[in-house]
From TrEMBL:
This is Right-handed parallel beta-helix repeat-containing protein. Keywords: Signal. Residues 362-396 are annotated as: Disordered. Residues 113-299 form the Right handed beta helix domain. It comes from Neiella litorisoli. Pfam families: Beta_helix. It comes from the Bacteria.
Amino acid sequence: MPNLLFSKTGLEKSAVLALMMSSSCAFSAERIDVYDAAQLQQALRTAQAGDEIVVNPGSYVGNKNSTASGSSKAHFFSDRSGNENAPITLRSLSTNNKQVLMGENVDSGYVFYLKGDHWVIKDLKFSTAQKGIMLEGANNNAIDNVEIANIGAEAVHFRYFSSDNELSNCYIHDTGKRSGGEGYGEAVYVGTHDGHTSAKLDHSNDNRIGGCTIGPNVTAEAFDVKSGTRGTVIESNYISAKGIIGTAGNPAADSFIDLKGTNNIVRHNKMDWANDSDLDHAIFTYQEHRNSNVYNNEFTLAADSAIFHMLEETVHAVNNVRLDGGTKIVKADYQNKKWDDQLDSSIEKPAKVYPCFDELDGGCGSVPTDPEPDPEPTPDPPTEPEDPPTAPSGDCSGTLDLVWGEKTEVDLALTNCIRFERDVAGSTVQAWDSDENNSCDFRGELVSVDNSSVVATISSNYHAFNSLSGDTFIVQANNNCGYIKVRSY
């Protein structure tokens, strides 16, 4: 039960506010604990600068109508604003038990609709509506460490002059769930489609998206940046194309990023086609595009795919690396006139560092852990203690050569060493329990043949390592399991 001396529901807060105003008392910011959807809707509609709305464990399926939520478009809505020194905060009580704000189905409404400024929205999940988070005329807001999934169309949309917002450390997957509407399943949409005219441009400017994991099953582009927008920054994200619809849908979606605005920055991202043949190229610049810096990105594409499909100039492309061995920069030779290798320093902004969504085991692009473990877990049966990691003994009795970027099943009865195509320093090495042989789960180490102090310990069904070096590793099982799956990229 809530402590009524120190926390108030949304309904109680409204009554207290009315009393304070009638008594000519000054209003002060407060913490507002909510326990169900109705209380949350009321708190959102009456929030004041500096308030902290804390979403306690409960059921949060919003009622989409103007009486309950305050908007006929939204299950949860607010048009209140904080200020630079006193933002309004909306968060779960615990980051280890993020609450899920939900709509009623994927065919209608927004889960959360914001028309206010200076909010901090964090440590929450959004699900089951036509759109996830919609910002309209909303500025200087921060959305951090959130998951958006099971959405009918786009997950996050900044539009109608929404500027200076930041979406960070998000995890977006399974969008475009409306039957026949897969072409509208973007992860992040900036601006408004205007029919490719010069009128009615939406100046949603200087929005930043960083540290997000996008995919799988985002059916349209990960990012769609529309005409009229300026200064969008897309940095340090991991994007998987698995599940994109390509040209099968209307509108078609066959790239990670569509750029139609100007003065965009796209940097430090990893984009992986995930063997999905519906991904045709990485970045598409369309009619209204004028100027972007694209640099320090890593691409894994089909070998014959291009990084860019350029219809409009100018892309300043520097130090973009392909991990698949392909060399194609543009889709057609005439497009070479639309890019150069000199960054436009006048549009640059300082980069940021992001930790990624905190339920991902191993950083951006990795597999999420179970976000809601059993509160009373059943103890595992006692097991014999595992031997500590040991240095490799002797030479490799057999070595399996691995194809860079491909997941490979390893049978230790046939070989005890794996060899990557090149030194893995600066790259990611992933290890999973075997899919083909599920009689046991591998627990043990990958130990460098060249340097026995370089050890990767595998103690769960998935690990990602970014600090290894060398190209050949002995695979040592601590539990007599002879099967493992690995990949480097």
